[in-house]
């Protein structure tokens, strides 16, 4: 079986939000503590693929005792998905070979501009070193990554777009304003065991899915199980579990950081 781990299920601020006094940010329930959104895929062929390098990356890798990676997929260039990229450095110390980073051309350009010391090396490295990373392009459609077949699609998000994908029976849809009909169709036809999907809060938002819209899309995609992610501090774990149960959804759950799931 393939395995995915939820490394973080929080929105861009994480939960709790620094300085916030709301009951969810003040909650002692560990299920209300959310690092920034990221997952790790460990395939049945022993490939470890990280999705996004959140600002919490070091803690996330330590929490899961992850000591090696084969590649990284970056969904889009927002800070909560990329600003932990320097935490990949220790993997370069060990291997001295570049780690492949897979992303679309716009995100590649943005990463190169934001992190020139990593991607535009034109001086000798002195001192602590840098992460050795090589960028590889992702285009829409099926694509081999580390001998695994992924199906990538772009979705509208903010001023740009964000990648979503499925790998065998696992789908990941993070950070998007809507899911386009042709993407819904492809995800439905994939007959997923597990879908991890954006659900920022209860109220509509300009750049993310909110609960009603997330539930509508889950009903259209029809995965065996759906897990809500990228949640803000409006969502309290016990409350939403009860609401989903009351609404009759018995295979949809909010994510908990650290959770793992198997899929075929
Ligand atoms: Zn995000
Ligand atoms: Zn984003």
Explain the overall architecture.
This protein has 264 residues and is α/β, with parallel strands linked by helices. The protein has a single domain (2-263), classed as Metallo-beta-lactamase, Chain A (4-Layer Sandwich). It has helices spanning 57-63, 79-82, 89-95, 105-114, 116-119, 181-189, 211-221, 237-246, and strands spanning 2-8, 38-42, 48-51, 71-73, 99-103, 133-137, 141-145, 148-157, 160-167, 170-173, 194-198, 225-229, 252-254, 260-263. It has a seven-stranded mixed β-sheet. A seven-stranded mixed β-sheet has the order 7-8-9-10-11-12-13. Helix 1 (57-63) links the parallel strand 3 and strand 4 (71-73). The longest helix is centred in the C-terminal third of the chain and has 11 residues, at 211-221. The mean pLDDT is 96.
Gist of the model:
By secondary structure, the chain is an alpha/beta fold. The protein has one domain: Metallo-beta-lactamase, Chain A. The chain is built from 8 helices and 14 strands.
